[in-house]
Amino acid sequence: MLSASENAAASRILKILRGHTLALKLTAAYAAVSRRPLVSIAAELSNDAKAKDATSSKAGRQFPVQLAFYQSVRELSNDDRHLFAILAIFRSNDIGRNAILEVAKAVDIGDAKSGIDTLARRAFADARLNDHIPIPADRDRIVLHPLLRALAEEMLGQVRKERRLSAERAAAHYYAEYISLIPGRWLAPDEANIIGALAWAHEHGEHELVASLCDGMRVFWETRGRDNTSRIYLAWGEKAAHEIARKSGEHDDWRRAARLSLGHGAALAKTWQFPEAESTLLEYRLLQQRLGDRKRERFVLTSMGLIAKAQGRLTEARQYFDEALDMSIAEQDDDARAANLMYLGQVAQARGEISEAEEKFQQALALFRESESTDQQALGNASSEPDPEDLEADDFSSFAHLEPVSGHWREAEALFQQGLSVRQENGDLVGEAIVNSLLGQLCIARGDFVLAKKYLKKSLDLRDETGDHYGEAVDLCQFGRFYLDKGEYEESRRYFRESLEIFRTIHARSDEGATLSQIALVAIEQRQYDEATALLDQSMSVRREVQDLRGEGVDHSLLGRIALEQGHDDKAEALYARSLEIAREIENRRGEGVNLRQLGVIAERRQHFPFAEDYYRGSLEIAREVENGGDIAEACLALGSFLCELRRSPQEFEEGCTYLAESADLYHSMQVPGEERARSALARLGCAQ
After folding, report:
1. Do the beta carbons of residue 535 and residue 517 sit within 8 Å?
2. The pTM is what?
3. DSSP-assigned letters across all residues of 273-311
């Protein structure tokens, strides 16, 4: 229990410090360490407040903290005051204890271990344990409050320039060595401090430090999607490393320069600065030729192919991938071979050559399975860290993109679930986002909307965390498709529009065309035909520019639907026939099935019943083949209604009712609009339910 005088002193302290939590914490720590009575502490604070009144604004929010801080700091030794001041050279307020000790040693601060404990007892800093990182890393952390950091910066300004430079140089050297010893997955707590050290080294022309820090961080930035960070800082590292290599002529220095050129080029490509990326990657290729490293030269060809593909230069992209594939076969590098087969499959798919695309994907998948044991071994190696030079194609995303036309849902899902665990274990946030997005797309395609939303939400969160704008646009587009399938058209339109804005900003032309087509579909569902037609005209122009024959077929089909719904059957038939021709030309089975169903509608209207039945049955057969739940439900509804309407025989009527019931059950299980139409047809046509 406090005495009456102590209670009065405590109230006086509370009033002087205006109840500021941090100020009270500092004063309480000071009281505990100094063992002074509260009456004396209150008197000191009162005198200090009056003395500072002429130079400090009592109204300022930091005044109570300054008052409590300077009351306590007077009791520190010179070394401890200097120790507190040098905390401000670190960019983050969360600093590893070992880093502080190394810097303190460089500037001759005696007994820094004891000094850190003193700062913690004085509440100038909090000592914490980051148990998310292993013991070999800097898991003992010293954390500064932002207001106390401001005071540390003020004190640092009073430290001699030479001593400050020594401290900053020591921090840069510490982190250059630290990142060479610690796996990248544990670097996140010190990322800001490392960037601060890098900025200092760059400003002071410390080329070796710049090159070492950038080389140490490039994998971390790559696997966490820090593309803008890489683009800025790896440019520094690339320049510094090249200067060092030119002067020394050493093979290892040239290898480091090459690694940084590659990292910088990849970051430029991922931030959609293609001309600069191509220039940097070509420089990297020249370096690999100089070093006689065929594997790395081949990697450049793959990267150049990806850039060409992203810009819609599909013929050029195929040439790059073909050359890289030939090199990987000659080198017997199955991982690289699988990667380039996958990319060739993507190019073939974009060109509408579905049969060739599936063949390439299946070859890539077979090679991937052969290397499965290697992936599992890597999972057991906690210290392994992927190198972007070796990550030519870690994800087989294109296999999933083929699913709507080839129908291998279960096989693809099993593959991606396996890949998801690998990425989570390696801390690969970019890869984890990709796999979650692909799983979400698979779930949408087969009608599992609850699970689809979970996967897509997780992917979108990871895209935001890693700053992956292209991936963000992809996921927003998938959410648009999600709400479109659920019949929530305004919500769908909003997501598609957000996605379109990003695709246009980053000049992703192929994706822009596809998204315009999706927004047109929303307009069709809302019977806004003029808007839909204008959007499809824009989409068609883009599709032709990027040689997307499959997309052209989709747009012809949507234009056919507009014509059909407006009663222009002849025009609709011509458009659907053209779309069907394209679908068969490129072996797009799903597109073929959709067009057959619509041609069945036109034939039924014209009372060409044998043709209508053939179209409907063909559409249902294809829908079952590609395992698309929505298409199966629509085809069952169309064929069932047709058979029940005709009533040519009791058996045929019963068959029609069976199809209608299947349609209703499918719509119900997918929780999408359509069930009411199917139930209504069952009731209207007299089917027993």
Report:
1. yes
2. 0.59
3. -HHHHHHHHHHHHHHHHHHT-HHHHHHHHHHHHHHHHHT
Range in 92-101, 287-296, 388-397, 459-468 the model is least confident about: 388-397
Above 80 in pLDDT, residue 436? no
| DSSP strand pairing (140-143 vs 94-96) | antiparallel
Q: What would the two tokens of residue 57 be? A: 């604004």
Query: How far does Cα 149 stand from its chain's mean position?
Result: 33
Among 394, 402, 392, which Cα is nearest to 324's? Answer: 392
Hey, how many other C-beta atoms are within 10 angstroms of the C-beta on 410? 11
Contacts of 490 by beta carbon, 8 Å cutoff, 6+ apart: none
How many whole angstroms separate alpha carbon 163 and alpha carbon 156?
10
Angstrom distance (rounded) from CA 365 to CA 406: 14
CA distances from 253 to 115, 204, 207, 259, 291 (A): 40, 21, 12, 10, 11
Higher pLDDT, 540 or 391: 540
Q: Which residues contact 654 (CB under 8 A, 6 or more apart)?
A: none
CA distance 227 to 648: 65
Sheet order of strands, 126-129 included: 94-96, 140-143, 126-129
In the chain, what is the straight-line distance between the N-terminal and C-terminal CA atoms, in Å?
Answer: 80
The answer to whether 179 and 142 have CB atoms below 8 angstroms apart is no
Does residue 217 contact residue 194 with C-beta atoms inside 8 Å? yes
What span, in angstroms and rounded, lies between the C-alpha atoms of 157 and 142? 21
